[in-house]
Structure formats: structure tokens, C-alpha cells
Write a structure and sequence with these properties.
single chain; 205 residues; alpha+beta; Glutaredoxin; Glutathione S-transferase Yfyf (Class Pi), Chain A, domain 2; four-stranded mixed beta sheet; 4 strands
Length: 205
């Protein structure tokens, strides 16, 4: 099988798994937990020198960084419909993916770590509250954009929608209920059959 995806679905590996499901790409799923000690050892560091998941091996091209992997899969399989046909669309996909990585994910991650992920004794509620407050302005940007069109790049679901929806997977908990257009878009994204298939991989792990 030409494509390998490393990482359990309950990690950022969910993103390339969702993309592969959308694109109908056969793949081998190497279910490595993000805390697996083997990630820090030489064999896996030859795949991802950061010692983290996800990573993919696409016919010998090895990539890490989850959002880079989804962009690669969409761009190299344009027939799958996730990659826009025009140059303006390409640029908008990059814009929204970088927005997700720089504007949304750091704050969403800070909130998640200090409410759920870290052991209770390590959590700092004031950091969770600060992240949540700062995130509201970002969510309004998303909501205002989606008030004008059904998807981030034009009329159709693209890898931009996948990337932003995956980064903001807990949108309702992050204050998204106040952003009606964004919430409706988020529900549409996550109700897609490919997203549901990728979610089922979490339960199967």
C-alpha cells in the first residue's frame, strides 16, 4: 500500500486520516500512540525527527506536521475534490490553514490542556480562561466569513474546511455556540461520511 499514516486517530493523525477517507485513498494505518516510547527512538525519528505523530509516508515521500500532510494529500489528488481548481482557491486554502495553525490552534490547545488533557494538579484555570477569551475574536472572524458563503473557499467543501474544522473540533465548548454560521458549518463538516469513518477509528483503537 503506497500510503502509510502513523498515529492513533485520537491525535492529530485524525487529520490525514480524515483527508485519506475523503479522497478514497487506500492506506495503512500504523496505530502509534502519542505517548509511545518508540517515537523517541531512532527508527521512528527517521520518519519524524520530532518524535511525534502524525507522520505519513506517501510512496516514499515522508512528511510530518498534520496540516502539511492534509494539504499534500489534497493537492496531489485533485480529482478527489478537496483541492480547488483555481489559483485564488489555492491561496485561500493556504490562508485558512495557516489561520488555523497560528490564530486558532494555540489558543484551543491551551484551553484543552488546562481543562482536560493535563493532570488536574497541573492545570491552571486562569490560562484556560485567558485562552477562551482571546479565542472569541478569532471565532467571530470565522463566523463573519461563513455568514457570506457555505464553505471557507467558495461553494464546496475543501481541505481548508477539513483543516479548520479539525483544529476546532471542540468548537461548541470553545464558545462557538454564539457563532451560529460557524456552528452550522462545523456540524456539516463533521457529519460528512468520511469524517464519521475517521471518527470510528478512534473508537476502534
Amino acid at each position: 500500500m503506497a500510503l502509510k499514516i502513523y498515529g492513533i486517530a485520537a491525535s492529530r493523525a485524525f487529520r490525514p486520516l480524515w483527508a485519506a477517507e475523503e479522497l478514497g485513498i487506500p492506506y495503512e494505518h500504523v496505530r502509534l500512540h502519542y505517548n509511545d516510547p518508540s517515537l523517541k527512538e531512532a527508527p521512528f525519528r527517521g520518519i519524524n525527527p520530532n518524535g511525534t505523530v502524525p507522520a505519513i509516508d506517501d510512496g516514499g515521500l515522508v512528511l510530518f506536521e498534520s496540516l502539511a500532510t492534509t494539504l499534500h494529500l489534497a493537492r496531489t489528488r485533485p480529482e478527489g475534490g478537496l483541492w480547488p481548481a483555481d489559483e485564488a482557491g489555492h491561496s485561500q486554502v493556504l490562508q485558512w490553514t495557516l489561520w488555523a495553525a497560528t490564530e486558532a490552534e494555540p489558543l484551543a490547545r491551551q484551553w484543552f490542556h488546562h481543562t482536560t488533557f493535563l493532570p488536574p494538579e497541573a492545570r491552571r484555570p486562569e490560562l484556560a480562561e485567558a485562552a477562551l477569551g482571546q479565542l472569541q475574536a478569532r471565532l467571530r472572524v470565522l463566523d463573519e466569513h461563513l455568514a457570506r458563503q457555505p464553505h471557507l473557499v467558495g461553494e464546496h467543501f475543501t481541505v481548508a474546511d477539513l483543516n479548520v474544522a479539525a483544529v476546532l473540533q471542540r468548537l461548541a465548548d470553545l464558545g462557538g455556540e454564539a457563532c451560529h454560521h460557524a456552528m452550522a458549518w462545523h456540524r456539516r463538516c463533521w457529519s460528512r461520511p468520511a469524517a464519521q469513518r475517521a471518527l470510528a477509528l478512534r473508537q476502534a483503537a
